[in-house]
Amino acid sequence: MPMDLFRKLLFFFDRREKRQLVLLLLGVFVGAGFEVVGLGIIVPFIGLLGQPELIHTQKHLARIYLAVGSPPTRTFIIWCGLAIIALIIIKSLYLGLLGYVQNRFLAAKHTSLSRRLLKVYLHQPYMF
Questions:
Q1: CA-based max dimension of the chain
Q2: Which label site among 1, 6, 24, 102 has the fewest CB atoms less than 10 Å from its CB?
Q3: Buried b vs exposed e over 87-122: b needs ≥16 C-beta within 10 Å?
Q4: H or E stretch including 104?
Q5: Residue 13: strand, helix, or coil
Q6: Residue 17 contacts residue 9 (beta carbons within 8 Å)
Q7: What is the pLDDT of residues 10-62, one digit of tens each?
């Protein structure tokens, strides 16, 4: 039953629109990934603010800390905070662009379906 419904829905899309639909779906998955990373990074950062010694005890943080040249702890925490802010800004810009692209796709599809429907109505025989 669900596959029949899916096939019926795909009937309304031409080849180019189906490709766009797949790209939009991939974009939504990337956006979901951004959301997960954006939300998942906040709690560890708050933990880092509360316990700065985590820089030296956590394996991943210690690698990053050493890779950037072992700056003072406060400077490292500030740079981590700025990196998180940059990530949130990039995520927001991406999701805003994705919303714009989705709305544009839907508006174009709405127009296309309306034109097709009007064309069918206009070519129907008149009953007088």
A1: 88
A2: 1
A3: ebeebeeebeebeeeeeeeeeeeeeeeeeeeeeeee
A4: helix 73-122
A5: coil
A6: no
A7: 788 888 988 999 999 999 999 999 999 999 999 989 999 999 998 888 898 88
Counting Cα atoms < 13 Å in the Cβ hemisphere of 28 gives 8
Q: How far is CA 31 from CA 3, 50, 117, in A?
A: 26, 30, 34
Rama region for 70: left / alpha / beta (φ>0; ψ in -120 to 50; rest): left
What confidence tens digit (pLDDT) does each residue in 72-103 have? 989 999 999 999 999 999 999 999 999 999 99
Length of the chain: 128
Place of tokens 């316990």: 51
Q: What's the per-residue H, E or C state across 38-78?
A: HHHCHHHHHHHHHCCCHHHHCHHHHHHHHHCCCCCHHHHHH
